[in-house]
Amino acid sequence: MSMALLVQAALLAKSEDSNLHADPGYKPANVVVAPLRFPDTNPAAALARIERIAGHLRGIPGVRSVTVTKRLTMMGRVTAQVRPQDRPDAIQPIDIYTGGPDFMSHARCSPGPRPGFRP
Description:
Shape: elongated
Helix content: 25-40%
């Protein structure tokens, strides 16, 4: 019994290590995420302030892109179930994460097949 528990713990540790060192598909180095909240009750004033901040950030040497979104990208998810037409018994849950309109280009993701990915 203790040997089985030890083996399971080792497999879990190996799996977590693999997840922590896996290639996420984008380059997270030099990425800054900052929540902005303003006491303005006027949405137009808050939007103008955000645009001024984004303009200042774009002017900093070395900054390649700045994007603003109402939702934190890749943090919220929706789970859906996929069922192939020819296999009604095969149901696969998938997680769908949100991303802003320019998320992929800002993260420098290249669309296409990933190494080791099998459809």
